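Form P-L/3: holo structure prediction, ligand nicotinamide-adenine-dinucleotide.
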Amino acid sequence: MSRLKDRVAVVSGAATGLGRAAALRLAAEGARIEILDIKDASETVGEIRAAGGEANAELCDVTNEEQIAEAVRAIEERHGKVDILVNNAGILSGRTPWHELTYEEMNRFVQINYLGYFNVSKAVYPLLKKSRHGRIINVASRTYFLANPGQMAYVAAKGAVMGMTRVMAKELGEEGITVNAVAPGMVATPGTEAHSNEEAFNRVMMNQAIKKRVTPEHFAALIAFIASDDAEMITGQMILCDGGGYLH
Ligand SMILES: NC(=O)c1ccc[n+]([C@@H]2O[C@H](COP(=O)([O-])OP(=O)(O)OC[C@H]3O[C@@H](n4cnc5c(N)ncnc54)[C@H](O)[C@@H]3O)[C@@H](O)[C@H]2O)c1
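OUTPUT (holo model):
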């Protein structure tokens, strides 16, 4: 498939998990991948290159504006533009009653899971403006709708991502840049496996309309579609890939 041939895609948090699957899928469709991650992403880069694709990674904390600026400078030197930005880097949470949450813990989730998306979007924006197919794809979470007890810090930050997505979609429409939020069901990744066991994943699956585990690859396929020209008139939306686990 070459839907994304020669598009430049920046994917944050692609050293592991959902971001890694998104980077592999976008590369398989022809995109040139740029990864921003606080962790070493050389395995993802190696896998893409071994398959004949193009990928680079920058070590970068999405809460650190200087590191982001340095990474974006390197991307500009390599490509001169960005077509697709997938804001995905984030932290997952365990369960803590809201009144036991500290200010520091609330702030940590807001800084990484919400302001991290803002920081990277703002830094990449001048390069996105140079694209004729601009896409911002924000990985959100259906926990906002489910209002998971014990996950207020995480849920609040992900809810803010949806607000940001809707406003940016309106502001960037004139420039032809679409901005959407996408959210998976509960997918096994290093991030979720740290807090949940097999029984928890299977329990979530049994509440879905389609009783099959959602994989990182299912979710990556949604991201590739939103990144493609087929989705040029889809903007300001929140799209779930959860096997019908949350039906409105
Ligand atoms: N897996 C799920 O079930 C699920 C469900 C809903 C939403 N999400 C969201 O999907 C995204 C990816 O989650 P995942 O499950 O793949 O988790 P993961 O922990 O497996 O991967 C997260 C990646 O983000 C990177 N990262 C974390 N903090 C960073 C920072 N400050 N700067 C740069 N990189 C950073 C990590 O190094 C890692 O590579 C997150 O935003 C998460 O909230 C996941």
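COMMENT: The CA atoms of residues 60 and 67 lie 6 Å apart.
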